[in-house]
Amino acid sequence: MTTAAPQTSDPKEIYGPFIGNKWTQLILAMVGMIMIANLQYAWTLFVPELEKGFNASRAAVQLAFSLFIALESWGQPIAGYFIDRYSPRLLLTIAALMVGIGWTAMGIVKSLSALYVAYSLAGIGAAFIYSGAVAAGVRWFEPARRGLASGLVSAAFGSGAALFIPFIAIALRNQGYASAFVTTGIIQGIIIFVAAQLMRVPPKKPAGGAKADTDKEQHQFTTLEMFRTLHFWLIYVMFLFIVTGGMVVTAQTKPFGQDAGIPAGIIVLAATVNTVANGAGRIFWGSVSDKLGRYQTMFLAFTLNGVAMALVPFLGHSPAMFVFLFAMIMFTWGELYALFPAVNADIFGTKYAATNYGFMYSAKGVGGIVGSYVAALIAQMNGWSPVFFTGAAMSVLAGLGALVLLRLPRPVPPNTGKINTGASTPV
């Protein structure tokens, strides 16, 4: 995965004071994330309508979401490999077309199998956009602000759907799901296409000019080197455990609300508040982690997430508590997309950041299948309590894993002859 040299900058690219500004690049990355947010976070609104439109079971419809999550997450290592090595402009331009065409086609197709294909196409495009945006967040910013930068980028993905959910709800009520898919698909594809034309990798710094960067002083782990560390596998399991619960809320907000007798207007409100809380949590916890420490922040947030999930079967039938608990779950869940990229860069370096984080992110594919398709099957057979109690336990275990990671010595670069001093992993 690391035979070609990763790209730092292209001498043919034009930078200048605007395009070459790290905040410009951060905003462009955020725009791309906002435009793919619907693909994941607005999906729950479409589920009942698609059940009726295709005369299909909930599990059959949710399989489409599982396929999307699988390709969007399992495609990350491949996307990261190319993002690390080639111009993000070309790759994100192609991805814009895939997202726009895929999401638009979901309003046109006439069979479930075609829906699966269209959603999968959008998922592959989203993988490249997500990988490119996250890479921008960790590459353009110094380690001291990396948590905040990652938080802002991931917050755009977490809360971006809030801009569209009210429109989608109205379109679903007045015109049907086809119009909602087609209109938002065209808008998203065009805006991502435009943003992609301005995306750049950071330019190389003049030799001997700047103060040594922390990233230059640490070993830059290749993907194979990363695989040989205990740190990666512990992080992977933590990612898998915490991501699953949030996938339940992402995919099942409307189905659970309908089963619980929550009014339709409250369900739409909850879906909107969820995306805002999701995005706010990424910024809040990402910023906190720059001061408190990555793993201390993970333990606190993941534990609170588990508590909120455990309370849903008891209190979630109240409209007010339905909105509050689901928002709290998302507020203490979304930060994983800010903290894990920062942890990846802190431990393994930024040189192969997109590829390495892509493999971490692939855990979301398993979590997405469990949180959507498997959760729907369990809920149909045994009710919602086992779904939320299992998710709560997994979140708490992920938090405890962060405390273990905190005590681990730093991973030792292979073939360096260095002796591990026992210093714990950076926080």
TrEMBL record:
UniProt keyword list: Membrane, Transmembrane, Transmembrane helix, Transport
Gene Ontology molecular function: any one: oxalate transmembrane transporter activity
Main subcellular location: membrane
Cell compartments where the protein resides: Cell membrane
InterPro entries: MFS, MFS_dom, MFS_Riboflavin_Transporter, MFS_trans_sf, Oxa/Form_antiport
Segments crossing the lipid bilayer: 26-43, 63-83, 90-109, 115-136, 148-171, 177-196, 230-250, 262-285, 297-315, 321-340, 361-381, 387-408
Secretion signal, residue range per the UniProt entry: none
SUPFAM superfamilies associated with the record: MFS general substrate transporter (SSF103473)
Ranges of residues in domain Major facilitator superfamily (MFS) profile: 24-410
Bilayer disposition of the protein: Multi-pass membrane protein
GO cellular component terms given for this protein: plasma membrane
Protein name: OFA family oxalate/formate antiporter-like MFS transporter
UniProt source species: Thermosediminibacter litoriperuensis
